[in-house]
């Protein structure tokens, strides 16, 4: 069975800059999963440092209002991997999941780490590149012209083990059917 992971779609990230396009695509993917009665699992980064925008218990750590009502499960994490020291594996086993679709934030950290960790655990993985976003930019990496989503999507695609789609391909293929 298939499940959708929505990673770190929280106020402290989504409100950082204009992520309206990414949130819109994530919502469309969620709605496709809901139409097929497939589980939607939200991963929620929580930090112990009070200065963090994702400080546990703060409004920044809350799921973004535009997506909050779609969560079938909400699982907290404290590292980029959604599997490390979380209940994700237990939930996936209980639901008999063998194929994970990855969307959310931050592309080059939490989304990528989770996709690789899922593959390492034997899951088929589909990474929906344009339904991810990042607060970082080419300036942070001192790499002018770097398209972080495209770079991560290309690297994962080259593995030949993680399927990478953009939303249009996801929609055209009727991937959930």
Automatic annotation (TrEMBL):
Isochorismatase-like domain boundaries: 3-140
Domain of life from the UniProt record: Bacteria
One Gene Ontology molecular-function label: hydrolase activity
Gene3D superfamilies: Isochorismatase-like
Coiled coil stretches, renumbered: none
Keywords: Hydrolase
One Pfam family of this chain: Isochorismatase
SUPFAM superfamilies for this protein: Isochorismatase-like hydrolases (SSF52499)
Similarity field: Belongs to the isochorismatase family.
Protein name per its UniProtKB record: Cysteine hydrolase family protein
Species per Swiss-Prot/TrEMBL record: Alkalibacillus silvisoli
């Amino acid at each position: 069975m298939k499940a959708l992971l929505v990673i770190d779609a929280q106020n402290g990230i989504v409100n950082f800059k204009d992520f309206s396009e990414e949130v819109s695509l994530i919502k469309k993917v969620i709605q496709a999963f809901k139409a097929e009665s497939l589980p939607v699992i939200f991963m929620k980064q929580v930090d112990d440092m009070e200065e963090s925008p994702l400080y546990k218990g703060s409004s920044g750590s809350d799921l973004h209002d535009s997506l909050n009502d779609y969560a079938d499960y909400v699982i907290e994490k404290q590292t980029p991997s959604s599997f490390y020291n979380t209940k994700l594996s237990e939930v996936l086993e209980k639901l008999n999941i063998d194929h994970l679709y990855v969307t959310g934030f931050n592309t080059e950290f939490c989304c990528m780490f989770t996709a690789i960790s899922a593959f390492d655990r034997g899951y088929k993985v589909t990474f929906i590149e344009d339904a991810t976003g990042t607060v970082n930019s080419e300036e942070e990496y001192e790499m002018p012209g770097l398209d972080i989503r495209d770079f991560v999507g290309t690297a994962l695609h080259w593995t030949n083990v993680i399927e990478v789609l953009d939303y249009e391909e996801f929609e055209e293929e009727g991937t959930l059917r």
